[in-house]
Amino acid sequence: MYNNLLIAIDLNDLQSAKYVVDTCLKLTAHKPDAVYRVVSIIEPMDDSFISAFLPKNFDKSVVEEANKALHEFTQANFPAGAKVQHIVAHGTVYEEVNRIAQEKSVDLIVMLASSKPKAKGLSSNTVKVARHSEKPMLILK
User: Fold this and answer.
1) Which of 34, 45, 69, 79 maximizes the CB count within 10 A of its CB?
2) Is the alpha carbon torsion for 12, 72, 87, 28 positive or negative?
3) What are phi and psi of 134, to 5 degrees?
């Protein structure tokens, strides 16, 4: 049914990210031809006051660290031989998720209702992904 999934995770909450991955593995029933596109979005520092105190290539180093952390996470949470593509994007969460979903022609977007563990309802990014996406979406609580 679903063979090409876009899995949006927050590397700041690895327990919830593992829950999202486990759900996706169940959805695909560990099919060998399933492709898991795991994305983590690094939001830009918009506050010019704060960014004035950061090193020149701060965003680039954050993306590199996130890429390393994403590889470590997927290696620990996907079965050996699973087709996993790692994507670390820099930008607004909902725009990047929708852009990548279109670009990669995914069958399903999977993300949490909110990246805050005790939050009630949907985060604004989840709402915007759902509102603007042309792809089916599974929202997990």
Assistant:
1) 34
2) negative
3) -95, 0
- pLDDT (0 to 100) of residue 61: 77
Distance separating alpha carbons of residues 108 and 101, to the nearest angstrom: 8
| Tokens (6 digits) for 122 | 């949907």
C-beta neighbour count of 89 within 10 angstroms: 19
- 57 vs 38: CA distance, rounded Å: 24
DSSP state of 117: T
- Note the pLDDT of residue 118: 73
Instruction: Give the span between the Cα atoms of 14 and 12, in whole angstroms.
Output: 6
Angle, helix 14-28 to helix 58-77, in steps of 10 degrees:
50
Percent helix, strand and coil across the chain, each to the nearest 5: 40, 20, 35
Contact 84, 38 (CB under 8 A): yes
Return the percentage of the chain with pLDDT > 70, whole number: 89
Q: Which of 1-10, 43-52, 93-102, 108-117 has the lowest mean pLDDT?
A: 43-52
Q: What angle do CA 49, 89, 135 make, to 5 degrees?
A: 125
